[in-house]
Amino acid sequence: MQTRLRTIALLVCASFMLPAAIAQAPTTPSSKSILETIEWTWAAKPDNPDPALPNVLLLGDSITRGYYPEVTKLLAGRANCYLFATSAASGDPRLIHQISDYFAMMPLKFAVIHFNNGMHGWKYTEAAYGSSLPQLVEALRAKSQGAKLVWATTTPVHADDSGGATNPRIDQRNAESLRTMQRFHIPIDDQHVLMAAHDDLHNGSVHYTEAGSAVQAKQVQQIIEKLLPAH
């Protein structure tokens, strides 16, 4: 069992709605957040982390939350697995603040950080999404005490989602992220290619069944395992 540290669901009332001019998708990183109807962060940790084992952080969104429990099982006895997930996307100025808050709350040395950020923030353009990714990488490097980073590409959707996710837009975001990760020499976990072959394992338009999350978790575990310190 994993201990849930925090769940925040912010229902955006009419008084917090942005003016129409601001709500239009910007072409550069915004200095203001474009909120979704529900905003949340979610963190989880082992009940009894083993101080003799390295620590691993999975950072992402609800897709990451889906495969986190299985990754934890697969890495049992090899690493302590932690989770930080959020609905704030690259391009949203809240994201970097949330990451800073997480590391203040969980001041650990992580051996590996496996991260993704791509299934939210559809009111931001792909250009705004991409231009903020270097800031995300730099924040993780600054806060993580030397963790090895690995980027996971964003998975395809089964059908266009009402929240804004479409496969053409996901392809653009993945292209933006690959350019950034190549620039920073960060290895890639290509979850997009993996799950494109498992469209039947979708649970709705965006998320996956338990079996689908298990497929993802296996690849995550294999990639993290290669980056962990030797036994």
Average per-residue pLDDT, rounded, comes to: 89
Name the structural class: alpha/beta
CATH architecture: 3-Layer(aba) Sandwich
State Rg.
Answer: 17 Å
Looking at the structure, the CATH topology is Rossmann fold
The tally of structural domains comes to 1
Strand order of the largest sheet: 1-4-6-5-7-8-9
What is the H-and-E element order? EEHEEEHEHEHEHEHEEH
Helix content: 25-40%
**Uncertain ranges:** 1-28
Measure the end-to-end span: 25 Å
Number of β-strand runs: 11
Summarize the main sheet: 7 strands, mixed
Description of the molecule:
The protein starts with a strand and ends with a helix. Helix 4 packs across helix 5. The chain has one domain: SGNH hydrolase (Rossmann fold, 3-Layer(aba) Sandwich). By secondary structure, it is of the alpha/beta class. The protein is 38% helix and 19% strand. The protein has 7 helices and 11 strands. The chain is globular. The longest helix has 18 residues. The chain has a 7-stranded mixed β-sheet, with helices on both faces.
